[in-house]
Design goal:
It is a single chain. The protein contains five helices and seven strands; from the N terminus they run E-H-H-E-E-E-H-E-H-E-E-H. With 180 residues, the protein is an alpha+beta fold. Strand 4, helix 3 and strand 5 form a beta-alpha-beta unit. The radius of gyration is 16 Å and the shape is globular.
């Protein structure tokens, strides 16, 4: 797998992946997190224009993915990543963040449903960009909670989005996930 910056030409494919993610969330008991319209095309477009929207693509058959039926360059998923201060993370209820060092934020991570290990690969890539990672998810998104915890994220409490919606806040630091 590879990570590359998304370009405007990728926008239609990204919107298809987000539609699939909304359907998957509904099917797995999480109908309210993204509802029927999030993320809106203009939000995704802005992420692309700001250089903060990313794609995870298949390397192709030379890396043993032929058995999975993946083709080289096939888009396996998309996400937002940036090392930046997220205003919705300023206040947190509960345990609190693991540290107050600069951090990378991951938002809008969504899979095409193909390519085993997509989330793990994306999280590892993001950790290579910044040792501290923060992400949040809806309390009904059991699938994402499991994926986060399996990948070294620790639940730190509850944050609130700009519209007041609560989200479970997760933090991963290299010191907690590195192996001696």
């Amino acid at each position: 797998m590879q990570i590359q910056k998304a370009e405007l030409k990728d926008l239609p494919q990204m919107m298809i992946i987000y539609q699939r993610a909304r359907e998957f969330m509904r099917e797995t008991g999480n109908p309210d997190q993204w509802k029927d319209s999030y993320p809106q095309e203009e939000v995704v477009r802005r992420g692309i224009e700001e250089g903060k929207a990313w794609l995870c693509t298949a390397d192709g058959p030379e890396d043993g993915q032929e058995e999975d039926g993946l083709t080289q360059g096939e888009v396996l998923g998309t996400f937002y990543f940036a090392v930046e201060d997220d205003p919705t993370y300023h206040e947190i209820e509960g345990r609190g963040w693991l540290n107050h060092e600069p951090y990378g934020v991951i938002h809008r991570i969504a899979s095409s449903g193909r390519g085993k290990g997509f989330a793990r690969f994306c999280f590892a890539w993001a950790a290579g960009q910044c040792l501290n990672l923060r992400i949040d998810t809806h309390e009904d998104n059991w699938v994402m909670q499991h994926v986060l915890e399996k990948n070294g994220f620790v639940q730190c409490g509850m944050i609130h989005l700009a519209d007041g919606s609560p989200r479970l806040a997760y933090h991963r630091t290299e010191s907690l996930t590195s192996k001696p």
